[in-house]
Amino acid sequence: MSRFEDEVETFVGALRYEREMAENTCLSYGRDLRSFGDYLKSRGIGAAAEVTRETIAEYVRGERTQGRSAATRARRLVAVKQFFRYLKERRMVSADPT
């Protein structure tokens, strides 16, 4: 498991147990962040701290190019934003690239 995958699992666990979000919401966040993680892996990025604003913009452009609907792109971007907000609050990253 990569560091990014560990960070995602920590985040999803916090959604589930600290924020008491519905299980389907947690599963959706996890699925969307795994998609983002697959993109990062293809770019040689293994940890959230390595992600830049441009990395996220390229991911969103790629989602559009692949024909993802606007709703899917928006949902995935929200998951990425919430993930980085959580990491910043926990001081797991020094900057929020979103």
Briefly say what this structure is.
With 98 residues, this protein is mainly α.
Description:
With 98 residues, the chain is mainly alpha-helical. It is 69% helix and 0% strand. The chain is built from 4 helices and no strands. It has helices at 3-17, 23-42, 53-65, 70-89. The longest helix is centred in the first third of the chain and has 20 residues, at 23-42. The model has no long low-confidence stretch (mean pLDDT 95).
Which short descriptors sum up this protein?
98 residues, mainly alpha, 4 helices, 69% helix
Summed up, the helix count is 4
**Succession of helices and strands:** HHHH
Q: Output mean pLDDT.
A: 95
Distance between the termini: 24 Å
Describe the protein's topology.
Elements: H1 3-17, H2 23-42, H3 53-65, H4 70-89
Helix pairs in contact: 1-2, 2-4, 3-4
